[in-house]
């Protein structure tokens, strides 16, 4: 027989129920996962991001009626039903995809763990081992900051910070430096690979709110609820 997978049924039902939500008519771009920066054809620099937070945000935005564009680095997760997915590997590819996706969007929620640096000159062929005991070093160059690069007046930008120390101080400073509408900060070690997060929210006035430990799906719902309040009133349909 032709049975529809239960995830599809649940996804389609959530999508349908969400159509009348407060984000109906809005387009939200969400990034997820970590980037892979190639060293050679078989190796990369990466990080431990699972993509769980970004995928939960995409689902939460769909639940409130948004059109969702999900730009994701490599992950094993199944994307939410009805999200338009673009898969990328490197920070440079993510920048291009986010530029294209945000050109006609209302908001960008940047949950991806983008590599700050990439190998300066990836080798076209597999790098060979040298003689035993030899030391090697790796030259890195900075990646473009995607959140900063796509800044424009009508795009509401929400960023993340993963810190291992001085969480609140770094969070407040990071929000200010990037001029974000909202910054979500959490403990890098406790959060990566976990399905829970204890986050701090920093708003555009620099006010800090400490949230209790929450499932990432519940944290995502709170962030997207805040996003609804940050969006300017919808433009009349004829102006879109
Ligand atoms: N980000 C981005 N483009 C990059 C790097 C990060 O858009 N090239 C985004 C991330 O998606 C996240 C936020 O910026 O939303 C994180 O800011 P960043 O200052 O890079 O944070 P960390 O890498 O955690 O900072 P630091 O290296 O200062 O610890």
* Bound compounds: cytidine-5'-triphosphate
**What's the β-strand tally?**
12
Number of helices, counting only DSSP H or I runs of 4 residues or more: 7
Helix/strand order, N-terminal first: HEEEHEEHEEEHEHEHEEH
Give the oligomeric state: single chain
Structure description:
With 240 residues, the chain is of the alpha/beta class. The protein has helices at 6-18, 52-63, 91-102, 146-149, 167-178, 188-191, 216-230, and strands spanning 27-32, 37-40, 43-45, 67-72, 84-87, 107-110, 117-119, 140-142, 156-163, 182-187, 196-203, 208-215. A hairpin with a 2-residue loop joins strand 2 and strand 3 (43-45). Helix 2 (52-63) crosses helix 7 (216-230). The longest helix has 15 residues, at 216-230. The radius of gyration is 19 Å and the shape is globular. The mean pLDDT is 94. The structure holds cytidine-5'-triphosphate. Residues 91, 110, 112, 114, 116, 143-147, 159-162, 174 line the site of cytidine-5'-triphosphate (CTP). The site of cytidine-5'-triphosphate has 15 residues, from helix 4 and strand 9.
Quick recap:
Helix content is 30%, strand content 26%. With 240 residues, the chain is an alpha/beta fold.
Secondary structure elements and pairings:
Blueprint: H1 6-18, E1 27-32, E2 37-40, E3 43-45, H2 52-63, E4 67-72, E5 84-87, H3 91-102, E6 107-110, E7 117-119, E8 140-142, H4 146-149, E9 156-163, H5 167-178, E10 182-187, H6 188-191, E11 196-203, E12 208-215, H7 216-230
Parallel strand pairs: 1-4, 1-6, 4-5, 6-9, 9-10
Antiparallel strand pairs: 2-3, 7-8, 10-11, 11-12
Helix pairs in contact: 2-7
The structure holds cytidine-5'-triphosphate.
